[in-house]
Design goal:
Low-confidence stretches of chain B: 1-5
Number of strands of chain B: 4
CATH superfamily of chain C: Bacterial phosphonate metabolism protein PhnH
Radius of gyration of chain B: 25 Å
Structural class of chain B: alpha+beta
Number of helices of chain C: 4
Chains: A alpha/beta (351), B alpha+beta (361), C alpha/beta (215)
CATH architecture of chain C: 3-Layer(aba) Sandwich
Oligomer: heterotrimer
Strand order of the largest sheet of chain C: 3-10-9-6-5-4
CATH topology of chain C: Rossmann fold
Low-confidence stretches of chain C: 1-6, 72-80
Number of helices of chain B: 13
Radius of gyration of chain C: 16 Å
Amino acid sequence: MNSPDHAAQVVGVHADDSAPAGAAGTTSVQRKGMAVTAQGYNFAYLDEQTKRMIRRAILKAVAIPGYQVPFGSREMPLPYGWGTGGIQVTAAIIGPDDILKVIDQGSDDTTNAVNIRRFFAATTGVATTERTTDASIIQTRHRIPETPLAEGQVLVYQVPIPEPLRWLEPSETETRRMHALEEYGLMHVKLYEDIAHYGHIATTYDYPVRVNGRYLMRPSPIPKFDNPKMDMNPALQLFGAGREKRIYAVPPYTQVESLDFEDHPFEIQTWDECCEFCGSKDSFLDEIVTDDAGGRMFVCSDSDYCGQRRAGQAHGGDAAAAQQSQQSPNVPGVPGVSDTPAAQPAETASS
Amino acid sequence: MYVAVKGGETAIANSWRLLAESRRGDPAVPELTLAQIAGQMPLAVARVMGEGSLYDPELAALAIKQAAGDLVEAIFLLRAYRTTLPRLAATQPIDTSRMQLQRRISAAFKDLPGGQVLGPTYDYTQRLLDFSLAADGVRPEAAVAAEPVSASMPRVTDLLGHEGLMQPESPAAGDPDPVDLTREPLDFPAGRDSRLQNLARGDEGFLLALGYSSQRGYSNSHPFAGEIRQGDVEVELVPEELGFAINIGDITVTECQMVNKFIGSEDTPPQFTRGYGLVFGGSERKAMAMALVDRSLRARELGEPVKSPSQDEEFVLYHSDNVEASGFVQHLKLPHYVDFQSELELIRKLRAEHARKDKAA
Amino acid sequence: MLIAGDTLYAGFSDPVFDSQRSFRAVLEATSHPGRIIDVGTPIGAPPPLHPATAAICLALVDFETPVWIQAATDANTHAIENATEHAAESLSQFLRFHCSSPLAADPALAAFAVIHAPAHMPPLTAFSAGLSDYPDRSTTLLIQVDGLSTGRRVQLSGPGIKHTQQLAPSGIPERFWTEWRDNGALFPRGVDVLLICGSDIAALPRTTRVEMTCT
């Protein structure tokens, strides 16, 4: 035990770096034989020094809600823009007892979600799930699950561009200064110009929010439909932008306000249709083209939510109601969450 | 449908198999060996090592093979492997004045101590397809020079430096360790250490275009290729328990020092300034482009107006990396149907309102 | 292993998983300010280091993070008795050995500060509150207290707290709460604090507002 630690001091690297350990096995990476397998890597792929660096950034991010903490993002074996920030955040927090769910566009079975889930299954051996309520960590791209999250869960967002002011001001030096001075007028002007021009705010996803009344934050490209779910959510929300090398966070029970104007209050999307499969009228619906003559059908974007509802319907409305209350014990009384559509699926199911 | 339905996992596995098969090509043709790639495509290997930030010809050859010759993909493979390697120590700076030269040219002086050494270069080849290469068995041999390359090969910039004509480059006070962008995020204003590391890892095509733009009037630089040298340098390490440097191996590098006019300022007399390029292997075009862009990016510190893309450090440094750029451009292939659905809904609403207004009018 | 006197102080028995567990405890504490969380990674720690302090240091501190240790490097604390000096020495030995962390002579340059005698600690303004454009570059204080539920009760609110949260740390000087209010006024700049007792921790991130309650 003595020697690795001591040797590490001598050469200036932390002992853990040279001593990969964990469930995945402890063989060192075979350099010349090229037989590099998942077994050769540290638990969750990242070395321990990198994890410490990311963990420190995450803690500062939670302490300063909505502020983008720069971090030494590493090159991951998946391309930049494909979730490397979310992957690094997940890799830094995940432990052997976690249960991981990965979604892209609300679905567990999209190629990118499958790929990331496989990556963690191979490098950590942790259990994975498609059930929102069973997961302790949910990594997501572009959606917040319809099923309300509970205290103790962590939602990890993959973020392409973390800076909310980036389209208005390309210079990082400038936008950093604007955050420091809380100088957000430019964003209001932009949204107001939309109203003047189109009669509506023309931002439909990645809609800017104010966190805890201070930092302007990009929620990542979730539809604005999901924005209200961020507010006072009992779960911890972490955001990772790998290529842009930023981590930010919304702690549980934190105010998240979508920007709006008194005469143009924030509104979410609605559909005239309901889900073809489960009949939901309150979830975010994907439009599916069924023929080349204008045929369309609408289905839930959240595949687990849709599946649970259908399972509930098969067992009758009571079962669905019982299951729902079991799923989200912390939801009642949580402002901003209790009134999301997903809180009343039993009603919808029986109607 | 490529994503929306169940079965993503199987589809991915099938795609992998198909990729492996198409990468291998016709099985009747012998498979490429790493030695063939490393030995016969040294310039591809050099680029992958340089932009991949890992000096290892064998691994670079593997990456090229695995990437089916897509060098940007190979660079990505090498980078992703590199991140998993533990840091054992930092070497001493390499000393290019002690380089074992294969090539050394200066466009600034007709002759100089040590002379001009052309070395292996495409510069004076006629760009005619050589059909003899299509046949096997050609075994070219170079003649051995009558005399060895001069042992004394001072760098041109050092010669100018003796006269005080060249702006000296000295480390910052206390000689701090350089920034390592593979461990820390970029910070602005970026120091020259960050900028040079970023450019050394930067995409050759991007730097080539930027360097070219700086010659065409998008920035005000008047460069001379003061010296380009290529050869082997020793890599040295000082183990703490020994306290002196030991040689841990040689690497091949190409160094380009561009010499630029600088009219001086209130406190600096007129002198020449330097743009610096250093790359692994024989990537000479990259070294030259790097030196041009390095000089352009010094505009702020030299009090020159910052007006052109090649002088804008945020623009250059944030967009130079082809692993970042390739990932983000190609991420548009990922499903975006949730966002697209949101836009559809908005456009339909706006069109409906537009139609109502038209009717009312 | 580190030998201090006759006692062996090993690091984590499983560096990968113990670090992860300790970090998650700190993350949970920071996400729910004032909530008492058991770090739960059994570890031997040289006195006066509490087990949770040792675990947090092993999980988060390394050669990239300068650490300030109370009394070891502070000339102003000469009033503290010799025992404390000795304590600081074994503490800094532990950190240097297990974490390879540089020691910061100036608390304003520290990423982490370890405080084992809060009565004598410097004011919060002595530590780094970060910059207005980089408020993350601030000190995280690990303050060891005598208890987390046995002292004067304070009421906490802010991000991470649904309504309000009670906390009753003992062994923390009264002036701390006034300094804490001033720290909050600096937002987004400010220091973050972890209160530690034994293997338990409770976090006070800079966003947490404190009200003194009547006892």
